[in-house]
Amino acid sequence: QVQLVESGGGVVQPGRSLRLSCAASGFTFTDYAMHWVRQAPGKGLEWVAVIWFDGSNTYYADSVKGRFTISRDNSRNTLYLQMNSLRADDTAVYYCARDPYYAPIYYFDSWGQGTLVTVSS
Amino acid sequence: DIQMTQSPSSLSASVGDRVTITCRASQGIANYLAWYQQKPGKVPKLLIYAASTLQPGVPSRFRGSGSGTDFKLTISSLQPEDVATYYCQKYKSVPPFGQGTKVEIK
């Protein structure tokens, strides 16, 4: 079965960096676009970034553009999110999520369990 | 940018009741609409895509309808395990979510 396991969350000071990972298993990772979606405490869902199946294209929400970088290592079946210049309003649970297609259609048919990022001094 | 507006923001109903949640898009989105269920403390789960197509394994009491700008998620007979927040989401391009509808048992 599809498994997505995030790691790398934690407490970080404003302005610092953090890298999240998402290990995928149970499906052919290279067949799917992948996303990061976040959820601030007690709030709704916010799409963050997407990467094509082969890493050839990426897109970002305006709220993270220029600060976050999504990437993938298809040889390791792993998705990443490099987060720089973190701000308090980046505090959220970050989910990796699978798109149903290799070029994204932007809905999410499988989700990881999430990893909490807290930005605080 | 397209905005998605759900109503109501919360509801309370009895077991066995028919429950309807509405989602409205600020512009027409054809049938590019998904619904997710997020139980308390859990991960979101895809229920419906293409406005009305049930994801495999989703109980048949869930039904999606609509196209264009107006969509509905209907639970035909509310069960205790349906307590959750439900989100609509426009897709096919950068996806806004609705703000969520919290469903509770009366």
> How many strands, which pairing sense, and closed or not: the largest β-sheet of chain B?
6 strands, mixed
Poorly predicted parts of chain A: none
Radius of gyration of chain B: 13 Å
Oligomer: heterodimer
How big a fraction of the residues of chain A is strand? over 45%
3D architecture notes:
In chain A, 0% of the residues lie in helices and 48% in strands. Chain A has strands at 3-7, 10-12, 18-25, 34-39, 45-51, 58-60, 68-73, 78-83, 92-98, 110-111, 115-119. In chain A, the strands form two sheets. In chain A, strands 2, 4, 5, 6, 9, 10 and 11 form a seven-stranded mixed sheet that branches. The model of chain A has no long low-confidence stretch (mean pLDDT 97). Chain B contains no helices and ten strands. A six-stranded mixed sheet of chain B has the order 2-10-9-4-5-6, with no helix packed on it. Chain B has a four-stranded antiparallel sheet with strand order 1-3-8-7, with no helix packed on it. In chain B, strand 7 and strand 8 form a beta hairpin. Chain B is globular, with a radius of gyration of 13 Å. The mean pLDDT of chain B is 97. Chain A binds chain B through residues 37, 44-47, 59, 61, 95, 100, 105-114, and chain B through 34, 36, 38, 43-46, 49, 55, 87, 89, 91-100.
